[in-house]
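To: structure subgroup
Subject: Chain for Friday's discussion

All,

I'm putting the inputs and outputs inline so they're searchable in the archive.
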Amino acid sequence: MSSSTAVPGQSPIAETAPQSLCALEPRVPADRLVGEMVPPPRFDSVRFDTYVPDPNQPSQTEAVEVLSSFAAGLGGAHATGSGRTGSASAGWRRATGGWFGKKQAAAPAGPRGVYLDGGYGVGKTHLLASLWHATPAAPSLKAFGTFVELTNLVGALGFQQTVQTLSGHRLLCIDEFELDDPGDTVLVSSLLSRLVDAGVALAATSNTLPGKLGEGRFAAADFLREIQGLSAHFRPLRIDGEDYRHRGLPEAPPPYSDDQVTRAAYATAGASLDDFPALLDHLARVHPSRYGALTDGITAVCLTDVQPVPDQSTALRLVVLADRLYDREVPVLASGLPFDRLFSDEMLNGGYRKKYFRAISRLTALARDAKGLVAQ
């Protein structure tokens, strides 16, 4: 775009006019998909000792202790192709005192996986990334990705090549394991079964489906049932708590005017500027696995005319975009409706409500981060 376009009354800092996400259609090569299977920028520096447990939620402190021991137990483990449990299982038994807290004289080969069960904003991704960092193995022997990224890897490489690529790893971390699509769930279940047979340790977090939350306890039950063949390889770890993203922080600023958002976009180097309804339409033409690449090089996302999301398919795509923006710490400045009014009451009480509440939580945090972009 030409750099001659400017907002009247304000000299832009940016060399060029803001980009439009709607003009981008990224293509992600397979080798990049593999190379990027590491914790995203927001979680690049997190560690167990940077996790701040809520003193009123002892399960959070316990989770750190258990996962630390699990990571240490992976130090002597490696993929062997034999499906052995090795020291990872031993580390888990030491941390939990045997199966279900009971010492056993002759414990069976135990799970090589842990499932973090809890609500949104309790720090599951922080803990999952900390486990990845704490596992004593080279980065090339550890993989971290979302469920969407993992399914896209299978699509790009093919099933057998994905198995070969990941079988040499000590640990595979899957954030936001999805129970939405039975086909994808079966596909990944088959993949994980092969990896477990190769000796790869697993860790995952998962969303839950409404009506099955049961104060969060059914999240683990759903997860284990959906991956029937893998149930013996996972041990659920409950993490209670409130949404840390807003703990002790001021409320997010209300939406700005279209003019304020536009001026901020022109004044911010690397910002994007899009009409919200148009962006929702564009997301339908870009595979969700490419939403991260869609934001490459973007320093801030500026949106005008935020409106209620019209349908569930659109809403689920927006959830993925919100996750990728949050992972990359990209602030979001918007006009129109506040983010807590994006989703209808029916959506917030339906089958994907936990996803929508997570998106509201993350977008609200990013809106708070964007406050400094607006000239006071």
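Points worth raising on Friday:
Residues 55-241 form a domain with the Rossmann fold fold (CATH 3.40.50.300).
The radius of gyration is 22 Å.

D.
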